[in-house]
Specification:
single chain; alpha/beta; binds S-adenosyl-L-homocysteine; seven-stranded mixed beta sheet
């Protein structure tokens, strides 16, 4: 066991899924933040267990050529990004490697390389921000949580967001401080404003502002709207009522204070309506490339019925509708399903149907009713597919399963389960939708043997 507070020399050999460096000292895995693979460092042990330890770099003895000076002034504190200390080439490489490692280790594959769709820019790409609000000495401020805490790190200009998004946040905070709107205090469960949620259509430029409040109204609404109207693209202001304790950002009820309560954006040549509660990929350019890969891997024909499980507002479903005979989307959030129906209509798509419910349960029901699926697309949240969904896939026995994933570990686990049910892996591709952050998307196709 390593000794706490002692300093050791180590070489960084790898990264964790959260983006920390990994070194091995005396047979013990040591997790070291802000490290770059290949570097030789002196590390102080801060936590020591039997088989693992956590440490901090005290000196870099041999620096990686991929190390960079952090452009973001709060990068070391803010829990939003993980990789400002390395160049993008290294970030891209480590993400592709992570997907490959997961598929090999947990998916039983033997892939020599996984390609990655690298992002053309690390700046201003995020079309959505959720700023938690806090107060100190009578002044309210907003920013992002410090890693692993609920301490808000203030940041005037977040480099991965478009400028307009930060302008919205600053305008809201000026209003908050002028009219003494209270910041929510989660320990006391008191105060009004919890989060400022901003979504901006990358193509449309339309901006939705959603204030998450521990209450049902805000003071001086017209003052706030007047200020927001000065920001180009401001379209709609919505309140999300969240009076519950806990970590969920959005509440269940939404009250529209200005505009239609949703924004529109264009993706894959289609027009989409997006309500605050609906999922929409945060990186427009990269999402489009990911969906193009999904469409090409699906190899759909006009005779095919395509089932899109976890379909959100129907982005992938509708992007595939033109090539298919029929498309069916399943999604658990009612507002997203309403958006999806509206999106089919606004694009004149008549061969699409949507169902609201748990993907696995709904898929089993559809199968029981005699629905056939030639191709199934799944795009689940991080926890991956549940047992019902795997069972439904088995019963549908589609020719192809296109699996879009935001967690390569659960993807690889599910790949192994589908292999046990007679499928083989065809394509595997990583896609970087979150430059500077440790998350990585991936897409694989499984074909029926
Ligand atoms: N394919 C869509 C959405 C992917 S995100 C797109 O690319 O835009 C995953 C979606 O799964 C979210 O919309 C989420 O609301 C939904 N979801 C989460 N759990 C679900 C479940 N058990 N059943 C169905 N949908 C679910």
């Amino acid at each position: 066991m390593l000794i706490k507070n002692q300093i050791y020399e180590a070489v960084i050999t790898d990264y964790t899924s959260e983006g920390q460096g990994v070194a091995h000292i005396e047979g013990c895995a040591v997790f070291i933040p802000n490290a770059v693979a290949g570097e030789k460092v002196k590390v102080r042990i801060e936590k020591a267990a039997k088989t693992w330890a956590a440490g901090k770099i005290v000196e870099i003895l041999e620096k990686s050529p991929h190390r960079t000076i952090r452009e973001c002034p709060v990068a070391k504190l803010c829990g939003g990004c993980d990789f400002w200390h390395m160049d993008y080439a290294e970030e891209s490489r480590l993400k592709a490697e992570r997907v490959r490692n997961c598929l090999n280790r947990l998916g039983g594959e033997n892939l020599e390389k996984v390609e990655i769709l690298s992002a053309p820019t690390c700046y201003g790409y995020r079309n959505k921000a959720q700023y938690p609000v806090a107060a100190k000495k009578g002044r309210a401020y907003a920013g992002f949580f410090k890693a692993g805490t609920h301490e808000v790190v203030e940041n005037n200009r977040c480099l991965i967001l478009p400028e307009e998004t930060d302008r919205v946040k600053n305008a809201v905070m000026d209003y908050v401080n002028q009219f003494r709107v209270t910041a929510y205090d989660e320990v006391e469960h008191k105060g009004l404003l919890r989060h400022i949620y901003v979504r901006r259509g990358a193509v449309s430029g339309q901006i939705l502002v959603c204030l998450v409040v521990n209450g049902r109204s805000i003071p001086k609404v017209h003052e706030l709207i007047g200020r927001l109207k000065k920001i180009p693209g401001f379209t709609t202001l919505v309140l999300s009522v969240n009076t519950k304790k806990g970590n969920a950002v959005l509440g269940d009820e939404f009250i529209t204070l200005h505009g239609p309560g949703f924004i529109e954006d264009t993706l894959c040549g289609l027009n989409f309506r997006l309500s605050p509660r609906s999922f929409y990929q945060v990186n427009h350019h990269q999402a489009q490339r990911l969906y193009e890969a999904a469409i090409s891997q699906a190899e759909i024909t006009k005779e095919d019925t395509v089932l899109d499980l976890y379909c959100g507002v129907g982005t992938i479903t509708l992007a595939m509708a033109g090539a298919a005979g029929k498309v069916i989307g399943v999604e658990v959030i009612p507002q997203a399903v309403e958006d999806a129906w509206d999106n089919a209509k606004r694009n004149g798509i008549e061969n699409a149907e949507f169902f609201c419910g748990d993907a696995g349960q709904a898929a089993l029901d559809l199968e029981e009713k005699g629905v056939k699926a030639d191709v199934v697309v799944v795009d689940p949240p991080r926890k991956g597919l549940n047992a019902d969904t795997i069972e439904a896939l088995y019963r549908f026995a589609p020719r192809r399963i296109v699996y879009v994933s935001c967690d390569p570990a659960t993807l690889a686990r599910d790949v192994a389960l589908l292999k046990a049910r007679g499928y083989t892996l065809k394509n595997a591709l990583a896609a970087d939708l979150f430059p500077r952050c440790s998350h990585v998307e991936s897409i694989v196709t499984m074909i029926r043997a």
